[in-house]
Amino acid sequence: MNPSAIAHATRDSGGAWRDPHDLVEHLSGVGALATGFAERYGPDWARLAGRWHDLGKYRPRFQHYIRQASGFEADAHIKGEVGGKAPPGEQRRHS
Asked: Which of 67, 60, 61 has the alpha carbon at shortest distance from 8?
């Protein structure tokens, strides 16, 4: 079975991992919110921007990183600290 892509993984106030936020659900929800916010200015473009804003999270490297860091993968081994940074090698390179 192919697991769903994860958008976010957070801990609750007790430190336990919450259920991961499904990426398709996240992108659709942000698209709907953006549509409402931009009703007067161009809701179609806002919906697309909302749906596309995290498409990079579908990359296998990010999915591997978030599953490993959050423990949502059976053989996950957390190395180091998760500090909100992109996985190594994923940072933008400036020319």
From this structure: 67
